[in-house]
Design a protein that fits this description.
- The structure is a single chain.
- This protein has one domain.
- It is mainly α and about 45 residues long.
């Protein structure tokens, strides 16, 4: 999997930034979906 990142990014720091950005986006999506499910179930 690290080889795939090396194709797109020039250095290791960019790879790490990309991975952390991906985790942040994933956590935000999970929180939004959880909040939406909670809101819909409470109606």
């Amino acid at each position: 999997m690290t080889d795939e990142f090396e194709k797109f990014y020039e250095n290791k720091e960019s790879n790490e930034d990309s991975k952390s950005d991906t985790w942040v986006a994933f956590v935000l999506i999970v929180c939004v979906v959880g909040a939406a499910l909670f809101w819909v179930s409470s109606l």
